[in-house]
Recover the amino acids of this structure.
């Protein structure tokens, strides 16, 4: 239905996923099956749901998958906050990541509104 690879929101969410993978590579190994795994799964969920939704038959279905991607961004933001509180990420890293999450949330929300009807 839609070519997701042409969507800026998909491209930027791929870059965010790469960034999160890089940042979590410095987390303590005891977090491998905890916060590292959780952060990586939810950040990968964002571009994955955008891609999957774009392949659905209707705009309404696409909107539903965009809503899942939006939820994953909210989950990611929460986990980033936890990572800061635990001292796994620096505050300077937080600002950059949170800014990008916020921008992606706005982009996804705009697409949800566009394709919801």
């Amino acid at each position: 239905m839609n070519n997701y690879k042409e969507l800026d929101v998909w491209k930027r969410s791929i870059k965010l996923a790469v960034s999160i993978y890089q940042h979590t590579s410095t987390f303590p190994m005891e977090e491998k099956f905890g916060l590292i795994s959780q952060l990586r799964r939810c950040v990968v969920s964002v571009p994955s749901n955008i891609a999957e939704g774009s392949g659905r038959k209707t705009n309404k279905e696409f909107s539903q998958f965009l809503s899942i991607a939006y939820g994953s961004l909210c989950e990611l933001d929460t986990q980033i906050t936890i990572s800061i509180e635990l001292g796994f990420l620096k505050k300077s890293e937080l600002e950059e990541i949170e800014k990008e999450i916020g921008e992606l949330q706005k982009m996804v929300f705009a697409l949800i509104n566009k394709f919801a009807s």
Observations:
- The chain has a mean pLDDT of 93.
